[in-house]
Amino acid sequence: MLNNPIITMLILVTPIIIPLVIIGIVKACSNKKTDQNPPYIYTMQNGYYSCPQPPYPNCPPPPQAYQNRPAAQPPKAAKKHDMTVSNILFLIGTAFVVLSGLAFGVAKWVHTSHEGRVAIIMAASAVSFLLSAVVGKFLKLNGTSTSFYVLGSGFIATAFLTAGYYKLMGEWLSFGGGGMYALLAIATGISAVMMFIGDKIFSKLPLIYTALSATALTALFAVLQISSDLMVTAPVFLALQVLITAAVYGAEIFKGKKNELAIKIIGSCAAFIYGCFPVIYVFQSLRRSTFISYIILAAMIAQLLFYAKKTKEDVLTSISTMVTVLLAYMTSLNIAQVSEARYGIISFCAFAIAIYLAHCFVPFLKNAFTESISLLTAVISAFVCIYSAKPEGFIPEMLFAAAVSAIIAAYIFHKNEIIQSIAGFTAPVIPAFITGMTAYYVSNAYGFDENTAYSAAWSIFAAVLIAAAVFIAYLPKFAFNFHAKHPRSNDVVLYVNMVVSGLLLIVVPTARELMLLPALMCFIHFAVSNKLRCNVTALLSSAALLSCVYAILDEGTQGKLATTIVFMIVFCIYMAISKLIYNNGIIVKSNDRLIFDPMLLSGWIAIIMMYQDTSRNSVFFFLIAIAVYCASFIKKNTAKEAASILLTVTASLTALALMFRPFLVPESKEISWKISIGIVALVGLACRFIWRQFPSVSKCASNSIYLTAFIALLVDALYFDTAVNTIFVMSVMLFVLIVSIMARSKTWFIASAASLFTITVYATREYLMALNWWIYLFLAGITLIALAAGNEYCKKNNQTIKSSVAKRFSGWTW
Predict the structure, then answer these.
(1) How would you classify the pairing of strands 48-49 and 587-590?
(2) Separation in Å, CA 801 to CA 601, 741, 756, 796, 808
(3) pTM assigned to the model
(4) Is 530 exposed, middle or buried (0-12, 13-18, 19+ CB in 10 A)?
(5) Reported confidence tier of residue 670, pLDDT bands at 50, 70, 90
(6) Which has the higher per-residue pLDDT, 802 or 445?
(7) Residue 598 in 3-state DSSP?
(8) CA nearest 741: which of 733, 749, 729?
(9) Dihedral angle of Cα 703, 708, 713, 719, to the nearest 10 degrees
């Protein structure tokens, strides 16, 4: 009995019909009760809302203000459905009955035939519709009624899909057949129709959204049913997307209509989904593009441009630019497949330049985003051209890259200062790659020496950069009108060109055949740098010239001494130019110009290069160069104290260099030592002259150095312990002692006397050591007695030993 679907449906429907019957009985009873007991309405008496007034004759009448006051209307009571105990019990009982019916249906579902299952779902749909009508009609629960209606509509679509699943409508119209998408389209179409009907009945906004979404899915499944080949369905989806977009945004058919927002939202989503299929096909067939691919991209570009012009949205124009770049790339791939990869790359670069020019000169297409995208595409294509070229043929690629470089250089005259700066920084990049790769291709194609090719190429490129800087700097003088329309806000491009050219001159390999070309470029670079507002770039040309000199010397066969002498000469020339031309200061600001001393700031490179080894020649020239370098820091604006310090360092380094001199080197160490002591003494004399404007410093510095030399002479006498040397040293010290007495100098008197005593003791050390110990004891006693007698004598005369000695040397100075 349970296998009969009719009986099963009756069993399932009975638990649902019973609550409906109960609802009808409760509603009928409620209506009768309401008719028997009409609500009591109080009438207005004397302008008051109240209960009936008893007759009180002694009561005074209401005030006149209240009598003339307009009668207030009673507020309307909100209609409320009372939730009585009966209703609560009814709802709980209904829920239990429905749950029991569902449990029974689920338990018996397995034992039901395929047709019976479809019938059960249809019966559930009918019950849902019936519940929707009853709940909406009698209980006035509009939301609940709508929910039951949506549930019934879903059961209809589910029943249809279930029938397709069990192949009740044939093999073709099933999930495993060829009409699967047709099955889905019909199911979603049924849902769409039911939702539209529900919207007419209930006027609920979610229903119209659901109806439109189901309609969009119906169209999607219907197109997918046409063919499984994306090449066939992509144009159909494109047509649907175009029609929907045109209807919603182009013709604006639904503007001002009731469901305009819902149609616009669902239509936009549907158009986007439909449009994804043609885009997927384009990327899928990118390397093997078809006529359909071109139609799709052309339609997309046309739509984007149309709606960009209509809505004035720059985003759409930017997207159209990216699609145009994709079209150019696809076309170049097609060309590369038909002919060669080289022609495809060249064509892509040509397309990129054409796209940029279109977006640059067509006002409708021009904005910051489109210009940036097209320019970036052109730059990428230029680099691809440069690196894809071959020695057999590279001129077209380099010409296209040069065209892109010219486009970037044109932004130097842009109105925006930031863009000017960016263009100034990036302008030499592509030309540098062109130069390097061209030198490589030329050397490989024609068999030239790579060193020679690179030397010539980089020297020419440096010359071009310098010439460009000169042209831009002097442009206002011979093209004033152009400069007035396109003024430069900064000099970034000038300094970038000069810096790049200077660095190239430093690192460029100098070929033997082209030694003079980089050197000539260094002179030109130096001259141009000194014409700029800030000549800091002249440092590079100064350093580059030293690099050229080193390269020239490295090619020769001369020895290290010759290299040291050449760099010493070059260094002296640098310092002479520094003294003659840049003597005002190391860094001077004058007439809105910032002038550096490039000779001085780059001279240290020559000093390093002249230090070839640790021989006396190399050390001597190295120390002399450092001394001259320190002296060259003295300028007109140098403070006197700083100048004196620098001269002192110079004198000290010169003295040190003379000590390591490669000439006049005696064989005797005694003579060499004494010459060095004499040189140190000359430094003291030089310090007295250098610090003459500061007497106290002059005296202290010179005396310190003199004493150092005097101590060194004493050490000389002690170290070289010969009679002749001792007599010579003692004679010098005796002479100093006599001079100090005549000059009344305490310092030199003490120093010379102490030295003489030391030498005497050291010279007679053998005789003194031969004496008996009691003689030293006797001498110590005599010395103490003499001190005691002297102290007593001084006390007798009201003096001390210290005051007595000070009195004897009162006229002496330190």
Answers:
(1) unpaired
(2) 61, 21, 24, 12, 11
(3) 0.68
(4) middle
(5) confident
(6) 445
(7) helix
(8) 749
(9) 160
